[in-house]
Amino acid sequence: MKTYLVTGGAGFIGSNFINYMLKKHLDIKLINLDKLTYAGNLENLKDAAKNPNYKFVQGDICDEELVGKLFKNNDIDIVVNFASESHVDRSIKNPQIFVKTNIQGTAVLLNAAKSAWETSEAFKDGVKFLQISTDEVYGSLGEKGHFSETTPLDPHSIYSSSKAGADLLVKAYYDTYKMPVCITRSSNNYGPFQFPEKLIPLTINNCINKKLIPVYGDGMNIRDWIYVQDNCMAIEMIINNGQMGQIYNIGGHNEKTNIHIIKIIIEYLHDNLNPKIDDNLITYVEDRKGHDRRYSVDTTKIEKEIGWHPETLFQNGIKMTIKWYLENKEWMKNVTGGEYQNYYEQMYRINSSIKGCP
Ligand code: NAD
Ligand code: DAU
C-alpha cells in the first residue's frame, strides 16, 4: 500500500486530486498537509474525510520540524506538492508570502524527502517527488507560438518567479542527488472548488449576485484552459510513468480570450438562470501590472511519452462547472465571506471609464 503526502490538498486542484485518487484507488494511504490559508477549505474533502485511508494534518510546508516528523512517522512513498500561494494579483500586493511558501516551503519538503529516502531503495524506483508548477514560468507569448518544456524560463509576476525558483530547486535536487523528481507545468485549470478570486468562478459568482465583472485591460489576454479532472489524470499518469528529472507540460488545447470566457458564462446564465444577467455586467478596469498577454501550451511530450491527452471539451467542461457552482451556492457563500469580501472591495475599484478600453 503506497503512502502519498499531498500538500495543499484543501485547495482547488489538490482537493480535486485527492477526491479523484481516493475514489479510484482502494489501496493507497493519503496524508494531506495543508495550512488552511484563505484558499484551503476542508468542505472540499467531506467525502475523503470519511475514508479510513485519508488523514488530514493542518500545518505549514515551511515548518521543518513538522515536515520532518511526518516523514519519520510515516513511510511516505510519494510527495505531490500543490501547496502554494497561487494568485497573481495577491502576489503584486504581498510578495513576501509567495517567496516563503513557494520557494522556502518547497526547499523544506525536498530536504525532508531526501533525508528520508536517500538511504533506501526509493531513489532508484520511479518518480517520488512531483512538483506542481505552472506554464506561467515561461512568461508571455505573442500571437504565435507555444510553450514547450525547453522554452527558457522568463517569469514576470512575483507568483510565477517564485514558482520558477522552486522549479530550479527541484531540478537541482535531481542534478545533484539524482533525487527522483518530476515537474508538471499546467495551464489554467477550471472546475469545482476553485476559489472565486480566479476569473471563471469570479465571473460566475458576480453574475449570480449581479455584481460588475472586472475585465483587466482590453480583455484580449489569452489563457489555455484545462478542466481540472484532466489535470488530475495527467498528474497520476506522470507519477506512474514519468521519467525521473523530467518536466511535463499539461494543457487543454483550448485558447480563449478573457472577454470570450466571460461572455460564454454570461450567455449560459442569461439563458438558464436569469434573463437580467447580460453584458451590462462587464466593466473594463485598469490592467493588471505586468499582465502576461498569451499562454499556449505544447503538450506533445506528455502525449507521446505517457499517452495522456485532455478529454474534456471546453463546451462541456464549462457547463459542468457553472452547474456545480449553481448547485453549491452555500459553498460559494461560505468562502466569499469575511476576509475575501474586504479583499474584493480593495481589489476592484471598478472604473468603467478607463481610456483605451472598448
Ligand atoms: P489554491 O490557492 O486553490 O490552493 C492552495 C492550497 O495550498 C490551499 O489549500 C492552501 O491552504 C495551501 N497552502 C498555502 N500555503 C501553504 C503552506 N505554507 N503550507 C501548507 N499549505 C499551504 O491553489 P490551486 O489553484 O489549487 O493550485 C495548486 C497548485 O497548482 C499550485 O502550486 C499552483 O501554482 C499550481 N497551478 C495552478 C493552476 C491553476 O489554474 N489553478 C495552474 C497551474 C499550476
Ligand atoms: O496559467 C496557470 C496559472 O493560471 C496558475 O499558475 C495560477 O495559479 C492561476 O491563478 C492562473 O493564473 P492567471 O493569472 O492566468 O489566472 P486568473 O484567473 O487570475 O486570471 C485569468 C485571466 O483573467 C488573466 O488574464 C487576468 C484576467 N482577469 C482575472 C480576474 C481575476 C480579469 O480580467 N479579471 C479578473 O477579475
In short:
The chain is of the alpha/beta class and 358 residues long.
H/I helix tally:
13
Give the helix proportion (percent range). Answer: 40-55%
Largest sheet: 7 strands, parallel
Mean pLDDT over the full residue set: 94
Q: What's the helix-strand series? A: EHEHEHEHHEHEEHEEEHEEHEHHHH
CA radius of gyration: 20 Å
Percent strand: 15-25%
Distance between the termini: 57 Å
Q: Structural class, judged by helices and strands?
A: alpha/beta
Shape, principal axes of CA atoms: globular
Model description:
The protein has helices spanning about 10-25, 45-50, 65-75, 90-95, 95-115, 160-175, 200-210, 230-240, 260-270, 300-305, 315-325, 330-335, 340-345; strands spanning about 1-5, 30-35, 55-60, 80, 130-135, 180-185, 190, 215, 220-225, 225, 245-250, 255, 280-285. Helix 1 (about 10-25) crosses helix 8, helix 3 runs parallel beside helix 5 (about 95-115) and helix 7 (about 200-210) runs parallel beside helix 9. It is of the alpha/beta class and about 350 residues long. The strands form four sheets. The protein has a seven-stranded parallel sheet with strand order 3-2-1-4-5-6-11, sandwiched between helices. A two-stranded parallel ribbon has the order 7-10. The protein is globular.
